[in-house]
Each structure stands twice: as structure tokens, then as C-alpha cells.
Amino acid sequence: MKKKRMAVVGFGFMGVVHAKNILGSQNLELCGIVDNRAGDIFAGLANTGNQGALDLPLDRLKQAPVFKTLEECVAGARPDAAALCVPLFLHHALAKKALEFGLDVLLEKPFCPEPAQCRELIDLAGRLGRILMVAHCVRFSPAWEFLAGRIRDKRHGELRMLTMTRMGGEPAWGVWKDAKIKGTCGGALMDMLIHDLDFVDFALGRPDDVKLNLNIGEYWEVALGFGGQPRHVSVNGGFLWRNSPFSSQYAATFEDASLRFNSLQPAAVQIGTNKGLESVALPGDGYARELEYFAGCVEARRQPERCPPSASLRAIEICRLIRDMAR
């Protein structure tokens, strides 16, 4: 199978992650990087983002041609697809342009700030026969995929309680340094908690009841209900002071077991039952798995049923609902 040519637009933390994984893919070729910043875009890459130093193949990254605009990249590199990793306020216009250029699009989460913009892109991709997927990496992260599987197969009985917490220091890198752009990024709801709100949709379906229990600045505690079912689901967390360590975790209690995961610990889920404690190792990189899934959709001309843009739209709608409650 001939590799599909993929460009990365925006070379901040997520652009770097996608570029690295494209280089490691058996199905994709990194054909170009689009970034309009002056100076060396490769300087300081190893220490950006919320997950510590990245093991980057810098020599190979630097071999990719760099363009200032998407138009230049399309003309010069002839990509089949693009990973769009730009600030949220640019998502709609850039994704629309990429689709109209005939590219398949992997758009970094969150989708678009306005639901109407999301719907327009979904309709446009459908009319043009392009693949459009929003990069909700938690759907592909081993520990979370494991939890979704246990919820669905009910091997531990019905889910009774699920609480998810995601928190860390307010970003102090990339566009977050620009106060004007920072104000357009959707805060902790759209930058962090949207991961867990989208996971709820993935594992349990769309909640029909949303309650805001606590909001202090950019810290949130939200309770979700599902048609009166006897289960408690909560999403908690947000931004702490800068330089606070990032972590994500969950605790899920079923009729016959409890599952726990914390990203600060090794890649394993702990399962407690009356019979004892079991630790299940779950290696793998959610970002890489997400990219390979997208590549498979592009090759097969198959819409991303595992991560459909309609679900990504629902996550935006819930975030906006929660912020409206706070107002």
C-alpha cells in the first residue's frame, strides 16, 4: 500500500506530536509542515506541552519541507490529508479551506467554538466526500478504552459510579503565552475537561441531565445523568497554578468490582474485587493509535465511526451548556 501524504499545520505541542507519529507510521508520509512563525520552528521542541520531554526524531523532522501557508503546502507538497493543530479560533476557517482543497482532515480537539461552525464542516465534508475527524485522543488511549470495554461488556455487572478528574497547571507554552489568543481557547472546559465529557459520550452515550456543582475560576465539578439510571457520573478538574503537574484519573465502581487509573502511575489499571487486587498493564500511545485509525479511514474511504464529528459537536454543546450555567 502506497503511503498517504500528510501535512501538519501548526507546529506547537500537538503539531509536533502528530508529526512524530506520522514519521513512525507504516501508512503515512510526512510531506510538509505549515507554520508562519519567524525563526527556527524546531528550537525548544523537547520541552513543550504538559507531558514532559518528548523523544523526538529531530533530524528526521527537520527533513520535512516547511511552508508559511496551507496554500503553499498544497501546491508544493501535494498532501492527501492534513493534521490541523492551530488555535481554536482558526479551526473553522482552516478546516473549511483544507476540505475545499480536497484534503482529508484530522482536526485537533476541540471541534469549533460555535456549534453552527461544526455543523457546516460536517455538511461540507459529506458533500465533498472527504474524511473529517476531530482528534479526541482519549477514545484511543489504552486505559480509557479498557474502561469503555468493561462498561459495555458488563463483565463486572452494571456501572454504578464513575468519577473522572483531569487537572494541571494552566498552559504556559505556545499560543497560551498570548493573552488575546488565550482568551479564545475555551478555557479548561474545552482544553481539558472536554476529553472526559467526550469519553462519557463514547462509553455511555449522551447524558440527558447536566448539573454544575462547583466552578471556581477554571476549576469545574459537573454531574451527569442518564435517563434516571442508578449510576453517578462526574467530571472534575481544570487549570491549577502554572507549573502544577498534569494528571488524569478515573475511579469506576461496578456491581462486582472497582477500576482505578491514574496517569501519574505506570500504565496500568487496578481492579479491586472481593477476590483481591489485579493490575492490568496497558501499554500503547493513544495519539499514535488515533493517527493510525485516521490513516485507515483515509485509505478505506471510511467515515470515522469510532470518533465521528457528530459526537465531537455534542462535546462542544455540553461545554457551552456548562459555561452558560456558570454565567
Question: Could you please describe the fold and organization of this structure?
Answer:
The chain is α/β, with parallel strands linked by helices and 327 residues long. It folds into two domains: 4-135, Rossmann fold (3-Layer(aba) Sandwich), CATH 3.40.50; 138-284, Dihydrodipicolinate Reductase, domain 2. It has ten helices and 14 strands. It has helices at 13-23, 58-61, 70-77, 91-100, 115-128, 142-153, 179-182, 187-204, 286-300, 309-326, and strands spanning 4-9, 28-34, 66-67, 81-84, 104-108, 132-135, 159-169, 209-216, 219-225, 232-240, 247-254, 258-262, 268-273, 276-281. Strands 8-9-10-7-11-12-13-14 form an eight-stranded mixed β-sheet, with helices on one face. Strands 3-2-1-4-5-6 form a six-stranded parallel β-sheet, sandwiched between helices. Strand 1 (4-9), helix 1 (13-23) and strand 2 (28-34) form a beta-alpha-beta unit. Helix 4 runs parallel beside helix 5, helix 6 packs parallel to helix 8 (187-204) and helix 8 (187-204) crosses helix 10 (309-326). The protein starts with a strand and ends with a helix.
Feature tags:
327 residues, alpha/beta, Rossmann fold, Dihydrodipicolinate Reductase, domain 2, six-stranded parallel beta sheet
